[in-house]
């Protein structure tokens, strides 16, 4: 096979990171309220919405969270940018 080594390289093995659990599923939150101050934890300092890959929120709650943040922005409860 072209003289290439097909084995994976030796050395340190990469560990699989622990799967993040959805905050809203864990706390059994039924409705994400746009007036809740907790939604600021899912925004960066610059005012961007944190992706679900980083925050660990499931798809259903990520969509509801994004809608709540956008509603809060339009009502001037949250900033559009820093």
Query: Main beta sheet, described?
Result: none
Low-pLDDT stretches are none
Radius of gyration: 19 Å
Mean pLDDT score, rounded?
87
Write down the overall geometry. Answer: elongated
What distance separates the N and C termini?
Answer: 55 Å
CATH superfamily of the domain at 23-74: Ribosomal protein S18
Write the layout of secondary structure elements.
Blueprint (H helix, E strand, L loop, with lengths): L22 H4 L25 H4 L3 H16 L8
Structure description:
The model has no long low-confidence stretch (mean pLDDT 87). Helix content is 29%, strand content 0%. It contains three helices and no strands. By secondary structure, it is mainly alpha-helical. The protein has a domain at 23-74: Ribosomal protein S18 (30s Ribosomal Protein S18), CATH 4.10.640. The protein has helices at 23-26, 52-55, 59-74.
